Amino acid sequence: MGKLIVQCIRDRDWRCRAGSIFGLALLIAVVVYGRIVMSSAPTPTRLVVYAFSTQEEVLTQSIFPAFEEAWRVRTGQNLTIEGVFGPSETLAGQINLGAPADVALFSNAQNMTHLKVGRRVRVDNQPVAVSHTPMVIVTRPGNPWAISDFFDLAQPGLQLLHADPRTSGAGQWAVLAEYGSALSQADDQQVAQTQLEAIWHNVRLLGASARATLTLFELGAGDAFVTYEHDALLAQERGVLLEIVVPPRTIVAQHIAVIVDDNVTPAELTVAQAFVEYLLSDAGQQAFSYYHLRPADPQGEQFLEILQPFTVEDLGDWSRAYIQVLETIWQTEIEPHLDLEPTPTMLGTGE
C-alpha cells in the first residue's frame, strides 16, 4: 500500500491519491484498534500452589481444572495453576527460603507458624481449615498382628514404618495420635509418653512423607504404619493390598490453606483469595469428599465410628503440642535412640 501511495503522489492523480489516503487511514485505524483490543484483553494469570503430598490427586485431578474453568467464566481470564507437592515441613522450609508459592496447603497449622517466623505471612494472617481426616493404622491384609489400637503397635517383634516427624506433617500427626490416645484414656502424661516410647521402639524405617511411607509399605517393608484415613482409602482404591484399622481413640487431623503474603502481588491477590474461597465452596468440599477427606467444618456425626476422637486443641494447641510432645519427648528422648534400617535413596526425599 505504501508503494501505491507514493506512485499516486508522483502521478498527481487526485482520485488515486484520495483512495490511497483513505486506505492508509483505514490501515492506521486497524492497527490502533488492534493495539487497544490487545491492551484491554484479559492477560493470562498464573497461580502457584504448594501442597502436602497426599493432596496431589484431589488438587490436580479435580480442584485445579475446575477452578481454572470457573475463573475463566467469571473473569474471561485464562488461569494456569502450578502445583508443587511434598512433605509439609519441607515445603514450609522452601517457602521461607524464597520458593514462589502464592497459596500453601499444609497438613497442620504449625507449618504456618514457621512462615510467620520467616516473615513470609503476616502475624495476623489466620489459617483457613479446608478439610479433616482421622489418623488410622494400616496393616497387612487379614491384620496378622491383630491390631485394634495404637498400643498394639508396641508388640515385640512388630516392624513399624513411620512418616518422619522432622519433614512430614503426617509424621507429626501420627506422633500426636500415638501419644494422645493414651493420654485421653489414662489422663496421665507419663503413661502417654511410655506408650509413645514403646511404639517407637518398633519403628524401623522412616519415610520423608506420608506417600513415601506408603510406598515403602507397598514394596513389602514393615507390618504396619499410621497415616491419614483418606490416603489409606485412596490406596485401597488403587488396588494396594492393605487393611485399615480405625482406633477407638485417635486424633482428627485438620488441614489448612494460607495465602503467602510476601509472594502474592496485588494483581494475584484476588485470584488467590478466590481460590481459597473455592476450597470452602460446595464444589470444593464435594471434591475433597470424593477423595475421602472430611468437611472443613465437620459435625459430630462425621466421626461416629470413632469412640473418642480428639483434636490438637485437646493437647493444648499446635504450639504447645509441638513443644511438649514433638520437641521435648520425640526429638529429645526418642529420636537419638532410634534403631533404623537404611531407607532406599529413591524414597528419601518424599514426593
Q: How much helical structure, as a percent, in the residues?
A: 40-55%
CATH H level, superfamily name of the largest domain: Periplasmic binding protein-like II
Q: Tell me the CATH architecture of the largest domain.
A: 3-Layer(aba) Sandwich
Q: What portion of residues belong to β-strands?
A: 15-25%
CATH topology call of the largest domain? D-Maltodextrin-Binding Protein, domain 2
Shape: globular
Mean pLDDT score = 88
- What does the largest sheet look like? 8 strands, mixed
User: How far do the termini sit from each other?
Assistant: 60 Å
Quickly count the helices: 12
The topology string of helices and strands comes to HHEHEHEHEEHHEHEHEEHHEH
Poorly predicted parts: 1-42, 345-351
CATH class of the largest domain: Alpha Beta
Q: How many domains, as an integer?
A: 3
Using only CA atoms, what is the Rg?
A: 28 Å
Could you characterize what this model shows?
The protein has 351 residues and is of the alpha/beta class. It folds into three domains: 2-40, no CATH class; 45-130 and 255-290, D-Maltodextrin-Binding Protein, domain 2; 133-252 and 307-347, D-Maltodextrin-Binding Protein, domain 2 (3-Layer(aba) Sandwich). The protein contains twelve helices and ten strands. Strands 1, 2, 3, 4, 7, 8, 9 and 10 form an eight-stranded mixed beta sheet that branches. A two-stranded parallel sheet has the order 5-6. α3 links the parallel β1 and β2 (79-86). α4 packs parallel to α5. It starts with a helix and ends in a 17-residue tail after the last helix. Mean pLDDT is 88; it is low at 1-42 and 345-351.
